[in-house]
C-alpha cells in the first residue's frame, strides 16, 4: 500500500461514524426537560484527537450549550494539544510565544463567571504534562457568553447560553455528548484529508513541518520517513500551517563527525534547509510535539 492511500481506511471509518451519529441526533427527543431548581453540572470537552495523537482537533465539544443560572460547566481536556477556556479581550491571535504564555498560561478570574471582568482564563488544559485536566465554571448571570481558546483564537470558540433558574432545559447532556462525538468525527476526517493533501504536495526534498487548517492540526512531519542520496538538501517547510503554531526540527542522532542541525523555534511560513553531508540515519523531532509522535528520520545513501 502506498503512503498516499494509507489514510483511506481511517477517513472512511470516521465518515461512517458521523453518518451514524447524525442519524441518532436526528431522532433524539426535541422536547424540553422538566424545569429544575437544583444546580446541574454540564460537561464540555476541550479539543479532541486521533488515537495516535497525529490529528489534533480545535473545537469545543459541543460548541453551543444552554444551561440555567446556578449551573456549572465542567470543561474537560480531551487532547494532548494545549487549550484554554477564555473570555475577554487579549491580543488575538497570539503574535509571539511570550505573548501566548502571558495570556494563556496564567489563570485569571475565580470559579464563578463574571461577565464584567475584562479577562477570564482557565490556564492551560491538556491530557498530559503538568497541566490541569479540567476547569469548572459556575454561571450566576443570565445571558449568552462566548468563550474561546487563546492558543487557537476565535476559530475555537463556544457559546454558553444561561437561562433563569428553574427554566426548562431545551436539551439534555446526552444530546450535547452525542453532538460532540459527531463533531469530533468530522474534525478527524478533516485532519486525515489535510494529511493526504499535504503528503501529495511533499517530496523527498520537501518535507512539511506539520499541517493546520481551521479545524484540525496534523502533528507529523510529512513525510516523516525519507531517503535521499548524500549531498542532498531537504527543505523543511512550515507553510502548510494555517495559523501560529510553533515547531522545531531538532536532530537527535546523526552520523559520526556531523554537527546536528537545529532549526530553533519555527513560527509562520518559514523554511529550514538541511544538507545531508554524510551517509547514515539522521533522526529528528519537534521539541514541542514529540510526545504526540512528531518525529522523523532521513536515511542518507552513499
Automatic annotation (TrEMBL):
Presence of keyword Metal-binding: yes
* InterPro entries with a match to the protein in the record: BlueCu_1 (IPR000923), Cupredoxin (IPR008972), ET_Amicyanin (IPR052721)
Q: Which Pfam families match?
A: Copper-bind
What keywords is this UniProt entry annotated with?
Copper, Metal-binding
Membrane: present as a keyword of the record? no
Blue (type 1) copper domain spans which residues? 54-163, 216-300
Name this polypeptide is given? Plastocyanin
User: Where does this protein come from, organism-wise?
Assistant: Sinomonas cellulolyticus
Amino acid at each position: 500500500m502506498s503512503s498516499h492511500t494509507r489514510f483511506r481506511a481511517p477517513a472512511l471509518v470516521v465518515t461512517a461514524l458521523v453518518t451514524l451519529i447524525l442519524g441518532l441526533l436526528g431522532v433524539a427527543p426535541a422536547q424540553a426537560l422538566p424545569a429544575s431548581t437544583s444546580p446541574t453540572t454540564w460537561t464540555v470537552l476541550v479539543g479532541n484527537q486521533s488515537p495516535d495523537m497525529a490529528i489534533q482537533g480545535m473545537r469545543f465539544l459541543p460548541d453551543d450549550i444552554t444551561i440555567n443560572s446556578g449551573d456549572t460547566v465542567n470543561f474537560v481536556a480531551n487532547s494532548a494539544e494545549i487549550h484554554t477556556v477564555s473570555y475577554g479581550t487579549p491580543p488575538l491571535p497570539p503574535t509571539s510565544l511570550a505573548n501566548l504564555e502571558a495570556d494563556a498560561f496564567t489563570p485569571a478570574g475565580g470559579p464563578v463567571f463574571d461577565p464584567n471582568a475584562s479577562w477570564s482564563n482557565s490556564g492551560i488544559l491538556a491530557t498530559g504534562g503538568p497541566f490541569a485536566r479540567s476547569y469548572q465554571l459556575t454561571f450566576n448571570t443570565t445571558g449568552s457568553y462566548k468563550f474561546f481558546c487563546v492558543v487557537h483564537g476565535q476559530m475555537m470558540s463556544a457559546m454558553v447560553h444561561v437561562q433563569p433558574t428553574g427554566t426548562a432545559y431545551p436539551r439534555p447532556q446526552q444530546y450535547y455528548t452525542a453532538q460532540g462525538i459527531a463533531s469530533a468525527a468530522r474534525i478527524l476526517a478533516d485532519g486525515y484529508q489535510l494529511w493526504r493533501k499535504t503528503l501529495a504536495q511533499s517530496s523527498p526534498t520537501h518535507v512539511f513541518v506539520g499541517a493546520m487548517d481551521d479545524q484540525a492540526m496534523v502533528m507529523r512531519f510529512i513525510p516523516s520517513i525519507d531517503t535521499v542520496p548524500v549531498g542532498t538538501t531537504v527543505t523543511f517547510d512550515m507553510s502548510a500551517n494555517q495559523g501560529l503554531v510553533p515547531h522545531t526540527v531538532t536532530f537527535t542522532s546523526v552520523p559520526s563527525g556531523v554537527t546536528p542541525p537545529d532549526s530553533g523555534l519555527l513560527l509562520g511560513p518559514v523554511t529550514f534547509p538541511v544538507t545531508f553531508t554524510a551517509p547514515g540515519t539522521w533522526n529528528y523531532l519537534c521539541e514541542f510535539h514529540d510526545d504526540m509522535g512528531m518525529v522523523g528520520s532521513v536515511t542518507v545513501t552513499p
